[in-house]
């Protein structure tokens, strides 16, 4: 029942800093029993923050603006700020058709585990069931909107589609109250993603129920209204953005109050022995694999270098806090080769 769901909100908020917020959300949600659809959406966002991780103490971590002056990094090279976006687009134009295969080769298949972890911690399946149950009960305005940025080939979005049962819903008439939007700056990556989606799920989910859509856009200047999405994800894309601080502010802007930001990104290895092995593999094997599989050594050399130039775990938490996210935190995966960062847009 709705009352049972409300009681579960408090049990999910085990972190004291979240508990006060959860109580406020619970009070607002109680009003949804009287027909407040917006409050029901708030409950859904609270439900998504189950099993919070330990908050990071990155408030003491000092950061400088990600971009200052007229130049920035492109891998280990210095380029003008205006030049980087085009160079990154060129890289992904070249690798789009072999990108998923290269991910398998570069990570030994581990990228699948990392993305599955993102799916699990996002609670998209639970949120979708709650949303569909609310709609079936006649709750006005109940919906769940997910934005996956830099997700061109659909690897993360397809996990959301399956967890949310959007394919089955696409067999019914009308728009799906659960929608996943893939946004990417690169047209070629989107082309590959949409082709894969139609082949895997059929046309109805894109053309009729609109449970899945592909939109070209820039993470630094998203063409979505304020307060549009319940969940914003970005996997292995944030480090390629010219101005990460600007992208984080945009993520905060388009999230609804109480909405959740999740970033999966290569980070800084925390185990010294693993770091040595990882560095050797990265700089010697990955560019060679790029040359062998994609006939493009330079693009994969850039991908390796971009990881080393990106923020470490604590620095990214600090940047998230400065962008306006509450309870910013991270979890290291595979010894810090990858880190999952998350934060929430304040309710008020």
Uncertain spans? 1-62
Q: What Rg do the Cα atoms give?
A: 20 Å
> Number of DSSP strands?
9
Sheet with the most strands: spatial strand order: 5-4-3-6-7-9-8
Classification by helices and strands: alpha/beta
Characterize the biggest β-sheet. 7 strands, mixed
Mean pLDDT: 80
Short descriptors:
globular; disordered N terminus; seven-stranded mixed β-sheet; alpha/beta; two-stranded antiparallel sheet; 348 residues; 15 helices; 9 strands
Explain this structure.
By secondary structure, this protein is of the alpha/beta class. It is 50% helix and 17% strand. It has a seven-stranded mixed sheet with strand order 5-4-3-6-7-9-8, with helices on both faces. Strands 1-2 form a two-stranded antiparallel sheet. The longest helix has 22 residues.
Helices and strands, with pairings:
Layout: H1 2-12, H2 16-30, H3 37-47, E1 71-74, E2 77-80, H4 81-95, H5 99-107, H6 110-122, H7 124-136, E3 144-149, H8 155-163, H9 166-169, E4 178-184, H10 187-201, H11 204-207, E5 212-216, E6 229-235, H12 244-254, E7 255-266, H13 272-293, H14 297-309, H15 313-322, E8 326-333, E9 338-344
Parallel strand pairs: 3-4, 3-6, 4-5, 6-7
Antiparallel strand pairs: 1-2, 7-9, 8-9
Helix pairs in contact: 1-2, 2-3, 3-7, 6-8, 13-14
């Amino acid at each position: 029942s709705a009352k049972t769901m409300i009681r579960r909100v408090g049990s999910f908020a085990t972190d004291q800093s979240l508990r006060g917020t959860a109580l406020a959300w619970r009070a607002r949600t109680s009003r949804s029993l009287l027909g407040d659809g917006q409050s029901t959406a708030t409950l859904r966002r609270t439900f998504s923050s189950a099993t919070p991780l330990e908050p990071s103490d990155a408030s003491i971590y000092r950061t400088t603006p990600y971009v200052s002056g007229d130049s920035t990094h492109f891998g280990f090279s210095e380029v003008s700020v205006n030049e980087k976006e085009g160079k990154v687009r060129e890289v992904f134009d070249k690798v789009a058709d072999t990108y998923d295969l290269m991910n398998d080769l570069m990570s030994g298949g581990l990228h699948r585990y990392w993305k599955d972890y993102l799916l699990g911690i996002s609670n998209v399946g639970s949120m979708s069931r709650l949303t569909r149950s609310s709609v079936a009960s006649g709750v006005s305005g109940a919906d769940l909107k997910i934005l996956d940025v830099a997700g061109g080939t659909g690897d993360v979005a397809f996990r959301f589609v399956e967890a949310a049962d959007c394919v089955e819903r696409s067999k019914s008439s009308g728009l799906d109250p659960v929608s996943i939007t893939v946004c990417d700056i690169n047209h070629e990556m989107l082309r590959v993603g949409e082709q894969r989606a139609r082949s895997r799920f059929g046309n109805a989910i894109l053309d009729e129920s609109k449970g899945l859509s592909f939109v070209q856009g820039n993470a630094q200047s998203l063409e979505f209204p304020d307060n549009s999405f319940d969940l914003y994800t970005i996997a292995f894309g944030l480090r390629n953005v010219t101005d990460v601080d600007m992208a984080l502010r945009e993520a905060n802007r388009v999230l609804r109050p109480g909405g959740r930001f999740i970033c999966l990104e290569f980070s800084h290895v925390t185990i010294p022995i693993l770091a040595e092995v990882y560095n050797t593999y990265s700089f010697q094997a990955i560019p060679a694999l790029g040359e062998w599989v994609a006939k493009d050594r330079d693009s994969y050399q850039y991908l390796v270098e971009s990881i080393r130039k990106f923020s470490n775990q604590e620095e990214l938490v600090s940047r998230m806090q400065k962008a306006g996210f509450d309870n910013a935190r991270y979890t290291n995966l595979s010894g810090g080769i990858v880190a999952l960062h998350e934060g929430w847009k304040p309710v008020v």
